[in-house]
Amino acid sequence: MLNYLSRSITDFLLLKETIKTEEKEIYIYGVQLIISSIINFLICIITSLLFGELLNGLIFFVAFSSLRKFTGGFHYRSFLICNIVFTMIVLYKSLFL
Q1: Is the pTM of this model over 0.70?
Q2: pLDDT tens-place values along the chain, 97 residues long
């Protein structure tokens, strides 16, 4: 799904001649990163809102994203598994911390 959406957006950009054909794979990867970041942000915000912890959720997201950016993080085989684990981490934070 993420790959399909990223390729569709990149193909649209190619159609509008916004990007060059030789840069297509780079843009696909970049669009995937942007979409996954938006999804992770939404997971964190929605979960935090459900538990009435919006400020804590925002602080957690900034800290977690910064840590992941500078340490490289752990990589799962699929985007779905990564989001499931991220959601469990956010739920754990909301319930127990």
Answers
A1: yes
A2: 889 999 999 999 999 999 999 999 999 999 998 998 899 999 999 999 999 999 999 999 999 988 888 887 777 888 889 889 999 999 998 888 7
Kindly give, in sequence order, each residue whose CB lies less than 8 Å from that of residue 6, ignoring residues fewer than 6 positions away. Answer: 28, 29, 31, 32, 35
